[in-house]
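Section handout, structural biology tutorial.
Before the tutorial, make sure you can parse a SMILES string by hand: atoms, branches in parentheses, ring closures as digits. In the record below the ligand is zinc ion, and the chain has 403 residues. In the tutorial you will relate the predicted structure tokens back to the input. Do not try to memorize them.
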Amino acid sequence: MKYSYVSHLYCPKCSKTYSAEEENHLCTCGSPLLVEYNLDELAVHFTPDVLKQRAPDLWRYHELLPVQHKENVVSLGEGMTPLVDFPSLGEDMGIPRLLMKDEGVIPTGAFKARGAAVGVSKAKELGVKELAMPTNGNAGAAWSLYAARAQMSSTIIMPIDAPSITRNECALSGANLFLVNGLISDAGKIVAEAVKEKGLYDVSTLKEPYRIEGKKTMGIELAEQLNWQLPDVILYPTGGGVGLIGIYKALQELKQLGWISAEQKMPRLAAVQSEGCAPIVDAWKKGEKESSFFENSETIAFGINVPKAIGDFLVLDAIYETNGCAIAVKDEELLEEQERIARFEGSFVCPEGAAAFLAARKLREDGWIKEEEQVVVLNTGAGIKYPDTVDIEVPTLEPGDSI
Ligand SMILES: *Cc1c(COP(=O)(O)O)cnc(C)c1O
Ligand SMILES: [Zn+2]
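Predicted structure of the complex:
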């Protein structure tokens, strides 16, 4: 058996194909590239039973990942995050079968570790020595730390008001870190120029094809954890949309492999954004295939502040194909939801995760989610990475006071 059944890269827009054994970024037509596997060949050799003997990390699915030689794997043990039921919050929302997939407990405290683990491993396999990326914080933190583990250098540019913890993670890893007085799109322009001038390996969102493969493991895990029975709805806080595209890709591959039976319905995928940055929601409401740049975007859910995603057409496609939806929520309300989640279930989720829970509540209120449906919310990171979003008055005592 082979370690990976990767076949080649292909363009979802113009169908042109590329090799997965040399450096490739975007298609000549400008579209991101996706990874194709020899699924028919794999289906003959492999059944999900084999997984039972494997370690609980995302490399348990190595046949469906792009790294061809095990010695190139760069891992901190990422993956197989808990799928937790939320009965009290679910009852409060009128969704008794509410579940959270908790990415807050993964190395680096956000699901970006999945993309970084697979992306850095594949970069190592391709002989990359120095990578570069713009980031809103969590991706830069994950990629710079995994790059350090791979003895690779990294150049990271992030907005000056990105969460300070993510800045510290990058700095501590030894990355060449810069802050830009602007948005991630401004950081992106500076990175693009540096990539051209200095020959750095560009790992901007979807400009390298392998990050999505790491993120897709959320979908495979979810299916495995539910014993290959798909939920009715999956809600995902959407910035670049890589996780949502990845989950959709994973479920399609599992169907092709026959691990998910053909007659099972795909979950309806819901892309959740903040009202302060909702390009996908605007496009979906108009039935469009691509989004427009969202001017002056602003939200405390920093990970989903992406005014124009390069893979927007893939996100919208996944929503249309699954009869999903896109919904925007208010920052003030998502903070209230974050507090309710902690009080009902003891979980301190990140603002992006709270946005997705709030969206579940709204979609239940307007009947888009039915009471009996099984609903999975992705909490994409740990609340403790964003200490400044919580503002609760606490009484102070002097020594000797009583309460
Ligand atoms: C990056 C990020 C997101 C958005 O992820 P995409 O897959 O790029 O849409 C959501 N939540 C958190 C915490 C993030 O860091
Ligand atoms: Zn193309």
